[in-house]
Amino acid sequence: MLTLVECQPRITPVSWNKMIRLGRRVRAQVARWRSQARQRQALARLDDRLLADIGLTRDAQMVECSKLFWWCP
Length: 73
What we know:
Blueprint: H1 16-44, H2 48-54, H3 58-65
Helix pairs in contact: 1-3
């Protein structure tokens, strides 16, 4: 009797080291996003005098604060 056997695709196991590195990269990226969001919130609270001290205009402040948290500076 002849039995046909399908070949299963070979699944390579992911090493724990790769998973740990991926987790660290994800955690670092989330930390960068949170930092950017906090900095933009702080920038949004500055008044005209403080903006002039750091060399920004109100328009530049509005542009920067309107960016989404993942948008790089």
